[in-house]
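Example 3.2
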Amino acid sequence: MIRLWILALQMSELFVSSVVHLVYGFYIFSTAVAFDLSQALNDCFKPNVNIEVKEDESRGGSPSVDGLPPIVLVHGIFGFGKGRLGGLSYFAGAEKKDERVLVPDLGSLTSIYDRARELFYYLKGGQVDYGEEHSKACGHSQFGRIYEQGNYPEWDEDHPIHFVGHSAGAQVVRVLQQMLADKAFKGYENSSENWVLSITSLSGAFNGTTRTYLDGMQPEDGRCLKPICLLQLCRLGVIVYDWFDIPWLKAYYNFGFDHFNLSWKKIGVWGLVDCLLGNTGPFVSGDWILPDLTIQGSIRLNYHLNTFPNTFYFSYATKRTRKIMGVTVPSSILGIHPMLFIRVLQMSQWRHPPDVPPPYKGYRDEDWQDNDGALNTISMTHPRIPIEHPSHFVVNDSECQPLQPGIWYYKIVEADHVLFIVNRERAGVQFDLIYDSIFERCRKHVFRKTPPTLPDQSVPNQ
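Structure, written as tokens:
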């Protein structure tokens, strides 16, 4: 009887979570459509005035700012870049705060590795090459989207870039920097970690999140899905969406799995059945983003990622919990997004299964209780596992001037995971305070010293 009650409770939670996420997704989509229709109607009734405006968008702005290094905003899971979802901005218009900002559109559910490859070719130009060995191992095409003109083709050590990553986007940038250091791009043997001037993380997914287990990842290995869970519903929906391959819909929003050739034109009906049954596709190979966001998956990534002595690192960790009589609970009801409130509560009470080995030596549940509804606060400050990287907790910006490269400067901000994206009005004055400080730092306080004065602080081989 008790088992039946537990099962009923779990199914009720799954139903509520599914409905909340579906409604929010529909809200975002319908908002974008409504905005586009409104713009189209306005254009129809505008007087026909022929004004020639020359602007090289692919180069990130006007010629007067060509000397400035671009600031590249990298979206997180389920995110989108410029050109997707009509006129909707993932970063809620923050890109308008500076004259030289790029907002790439990467796969919203593809793996950290695949997204890092896509980001490189978005900037340099050419056809995305996922690598022969990786492509064969994961069962997808080696080549992807073609960028006829790179958005910053001059990118090199003498023309470095500032990166700002939200959520999983921060880890994408770290993987990209490591690929540059490892000279992992064919035809670009001169690449180095010094192509990256600074990395700023906004709620960055450095060390994984316990939410992945609540959504359906198996805590035993951080790779497989539970038979019945929110992520299983997501998996089925994504496969069907990509299989129908409706051009105008895919142009509006794309999960990023085109290189897996899931379209009905390529795999037919039996291919769809095979994918739905879990025999083929990205969800079988593990080449999608959720395995990378488990604690185990983050450890696998971090094992190969360095913090480099010539790059500046900053992190804003978000938190929407507090302690009452020693118990961690959500810090607000109305102040937390409805899509995240249940998860804030669940993550604050998460306990690693006692019959499953902990993800790393020294793991403690209490360390992972503070969260923002998507990520644990401990995960967002700086890379910690398997090796703790150099870091400095910041209360006032003035206390860490002048800034030193090779150190993760981090702040803890009272906010949920989506406060600084999509809806600017919801964040209020905090929105401008956060983004103004990020852009001002990139423009006024970050510069490279040569030769480097810090010792090598890379992650030692295990």
